[in-house]
Amino acid sequence: MGGDQLSRSIQDKIKFIPKPTRAAAGIIASNLGGLVHEAQNIYGGRPVLESLEDATNNFVGSLGSLFSKKTSTKILDKIKKYLPRASAHTHGFPILLGYWVDPPVS
What single string gives the DSSP state of each residue in 35-83? Predict the structure, then answer.
């Protein structure tokens, strides 16, 4: 997932910072970058729900950076089926880890 890769990339650039702070900075920066990107998409006309789905996936992916790449891949592969998919027009959106809301049909 992109959030995992971006968080790791940021952490690699700031190795002079202690590990817990570096991990937090990577996760925060990864999500801020993702939110700015999604805001630009919404401004460009993309449906809000799709951007929320992507932001959710980015957040979950960024948390994967707390683990080794191998462990992160295993965890993310197992929870991927519970995460929202790319298209808000065909899939629901998870709220509070398990309750699904179907997107409006237009």
Answer: HHHHHHHHHTT--HHHHHHHHHHHHHHHHGGGS-HHHHHHHHHHHGGGS
Write down the residue that tokens 């994967």 correspond to.
64
* Residue 75 neighbours by CB under 8 Å, 6+ apart: 64, 67
User: Which residue ranges make up each domain of the chain?
Assistant: 2-101
Nearest CA-CA partner of 63 in 101, 11, 100:
11
* Tens-place pLDDT, residues 57-93: 889 989 999 999 999 888 888 887 787 765 444 344 4
- Dihedral of CA atoms 94, 34, 6, 53 in degrees, nearest 10, equals 20
**What local confidence, expressed as pLDDT, does residue 51 receive?**
86
pTM score above 0.85: no
